[in-house]
């Protein structure tokens, strides 16, 4: 199967990630919500860098800003920073075992939280709760599942039997 036959996977996965980020959750579980858009975009930056770059990350971030109730441009900035770091270390990350990739993605999600906290501090927004820092752990734990699912869809390996 060629990449052209699975051109729908990239936009569909991002729309699903945006939808997952909007799903209501109980207040007690809210701090554990992973940054779905960041995780899906991280996969695409690692696996298809020809199609997904800084400009694409900026546009996806703006779309995320428009559908959420956050500051306009916040997710765009966060995703551009994340994409820049991923592009810089892509050659190494791509060949890590999945467990090491999960640790690296956890660090990337932690960096995303630091960027978010810095944005809120600079704009004098209310301080983020301490439970806010649990989300990178959830993203790190979900990374292997997200990676394997998107890889199967992208490569069409779910059809082979």
UniProtKB/TrEMBL annotation:
InterPro entries: Cell_shape_determining_MreD, MreD_proteobac. GO terms for biological process: regulation of cell shape. One of its GO terms (cellular component) is plasma membrane. The keyword Transmembrane helix applies. Its main location: membrane. Keywords: Cell inner membrane, Cell membrane, Cell shape, Membrane, Transmembrane, Transmembrane helix. The chain crosses the membrane at residues 131-153. It is a multi-pass membrane protein. Pfam families: MreD. It is found in: Cell inner membrane; Cell membrane. Involved in formation of the rod shape of the cell. May also contribute to regulation of formation of penicillin-binding proteins. This is Rod shape-determining protein MreD. It comes from Lysobacter capsici AZ78.
